[in-house]
Amino acid sequence: MSEARIVEKRKLGEDYIYFVLREPVIASLASPGQFVMVKAGEGWDPLLRRPLGILWAEDEHFALLFKVVGRGTGILRNLDCGNWLDVIGPLGNSFSWNDNGPFLLIAGGRGLVPIYFLAHALFKRSLPFVFCVGFKVKEELDLLQLLEGKNWNVAVACEEKDEKVFCGTVLDVARMQLRQNSFSKIYVCGPHDLLHSMAVDAEFAGLPIEASFEALMGCGYGLCLSCVLRKKSGEGYFHICKEGPVIALEEVSW
Ligand SMILES: Cc1cc2nc3c(=O)[nH]c(=O)nc-3n(C[C@H](O)[C@H](O)[C@H](O)COP(=O)(O)OP(=O)(O)OC[C@H]3O[C@@H](n4cnc5c(N)ncnc54)[C@H](O)[C@@H]3O)c2cc1C
Ligand code: FES
């Protein structure tokens, strides 16, 4: 358990909050795909910590980006620079890669978080990738501020019409990329529907796909069984908090 101090706060669009936190131990240990369990309020209410992915980690700092959806994230939204966050982490596994790119990165909505961290890691190692990011509504395009100044190959989609970006889903732009280029591996994070579509779509079949999953999480380290996902082969389940959140898409039973 660590106390992380908020050193930067930004509001992105109506619903997203970006925090930079100072906590040297988490910052030095974190890898792309990992998450932290955050205590949202004082005392026992709310009782359960909230899982949030790590957006980037460098030197003594790491960042979070979250969408305000309910009580916990609603409380976190009101914190400010100088406040302290009680966090446990880094938790879970991380994405794996070798030196044989290029890689196709796919992020839907707040699924941007772990994919963004992965992009940082690949870029640092000069490994080639295309980063497809998609949003449901125009307002979420404010998240693109996080990509400003990055020398990354980015393809953006938005389901709501906007003159600056492609109108459609993130899968539409990902499919276009697949037809134009060859990739050795795909990484994805986003809503369950997105992961399901990719698991059943013939265009994605045959390529290794690592997906970062979300689930309701009670404990964050394998005790409460609230986060399980049925395995495709054999008996049993993955704990998304412990054997995940990154799991090979082809190993999951839909
Ligand atoms: C590994 C992991 C990483 C995540 N990373 C991010 C991130 O980087 N940014 C981000 O915006 N969100 C992320 N989420 C989702 C985030 O945890 C939920 O949006 C958040 O817990 C909602 O809390 P709340 O109190 O505001 O909502 P409420 O609906 O009030 O929460 C009630 C309960 O439901 C749980 N819950 C509700 N929706 C979800 C959900 N989709 N996933 C998990 N638990 C849920 C809460 O933990 C809580 O126990 C992540 C989830 C997981 C599992
Ligand atoms: S969150 Fe408790 S087992 Fe995964």
Automatic annotation (TrEMBL):
Q: Which cofactor does it need?
A: [2Fe-2S] cluster
Write down the PROSITE patterns for this protein, in alphabetical order: FAD_FR
Which family does the entry's similarity section mention?
Belongs to the PyrK family.
What keywords is this UniProt entry annotated with?
Answer: 2Fe-2S, Electron transport, FAD, Flavoprotein, Iron, Iron-sulfur, Metal-binding, Transport
Annotated FAD-binding FR-type domain ranges read 1-97
Tell me the superkingdom of the source.
Answer: Bacteria
Pfam families per the UniProt record, alphabetical: DHODB_Fe-S_bind
Indicate yes or no for the key word Hydrolase.
Answer: no
From what organism does this protein derive? Thermatribacter velox
- The answer, when asked if Metal-binding is one of the entry's keywords, is yes
The regions listed as transmembrane in this protein's record are none
Q: Which PANTHER family match?
A: DIHYDROOROTATE DEHYDROGENASE B (NAD(+)), ELECTRON TRANSFER SUBUNIT, DIHYDROOROTATE DEHYDROGENASE B (NAD(+)), ELECTRON TRANSFER SUBUNIT-RELATED
Protein name, UniProt field = FAD-binding FR-type domain-containing protein
